[in-house]
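A.,

Following up on our hallway conversation. Structure tokens first:
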């Protein structure tokens, strides 16, 4: 069951428990104060990496194991960085809403586009994605900035649930958004800043670093 607080929608605690602690593969980022009952934190560092060989960069998820009362375990992400493999230096990335990612296994593996020119990292389930040119990712992260971002929401300001789906072609980002059980697929090309989506009512809008952008709707292109 979804609920709305202001313009932001959150899942119920029961759904959070299923999504965050129901499988051993979940990637979570939970402060100790909100750990589910029956869970304990075990400091056992596990690192998950995804390399960009063209530009000698690596996305790193630093994780630790969370032991559950049923004998299984979950993995909590406690830090996300991009490493310059030529120097070994790491720059942290901070999502706008890490709790929404942790409660829903929001981190994903394929952060680099197939041509390795684009880096896409999740801002939060209701915040969309932050986009970097790989050639400039380290500098932009140090500045606390990015080259672009993408989010779809209602014109009223109501945020939608965002999920990474994959890539189309060399560097077109494919993601889905949801509202009250629905799921709609979008494709965003960072270089052209073109957003394609389903034929939905006009109340749905796209937002990027330039502001509101049109959604090229199926059947109207």
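Then the amino acids I'd put at each of the 221 positions:
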């Amino acid at each position: 069951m979804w609920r709305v607080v202001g313009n932001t929608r959150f899942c119920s605690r029961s759904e959070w428990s299923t999504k965050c602690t129901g499988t051993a593969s979940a990637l979570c980022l939970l402060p100790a104060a909100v750990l589910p009952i029956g869970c304990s934190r075990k400091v056992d560092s596990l690192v998950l990496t995804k390399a960009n060989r063209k530009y000698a960069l690596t996305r790193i998820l630093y994780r630790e194991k969370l032991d559950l009362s049923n004998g299984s375990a979950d993995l909590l992400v406690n830090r996300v960085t991009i490493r310059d493999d030529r120097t070994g230096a790491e720059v942290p990335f901070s999502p706008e809403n890490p709790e929404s990612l942790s409660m829903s296994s929001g981190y994903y593996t394929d952060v680099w586009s197939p041509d390795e020119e684009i880096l896409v990292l999740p801002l939060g389930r209701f915040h969309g994605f932050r986009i970097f040119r790989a050639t400039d990712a380290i500098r932009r992260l140090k500045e606390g900035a990015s080259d672009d971002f993408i989010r779809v929401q209602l014109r009223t300001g109501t945020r939608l649930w965002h999920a990474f789906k994959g890539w189309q072609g060399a560097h077109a980002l494919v993601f889905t958004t949801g509202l009250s059980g629905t799921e709609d697929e979008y494709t965003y090309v960072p270089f052209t800043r073109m957003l394609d989506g389903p034929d939905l009512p006009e109340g749905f809008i796209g937002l990027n670093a330039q502001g509101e952008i049109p959604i090229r709707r199926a059947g109207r292109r």
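The chain has a mean pLDDT of 81. Curious whether your intuition agrees with the design.

B.
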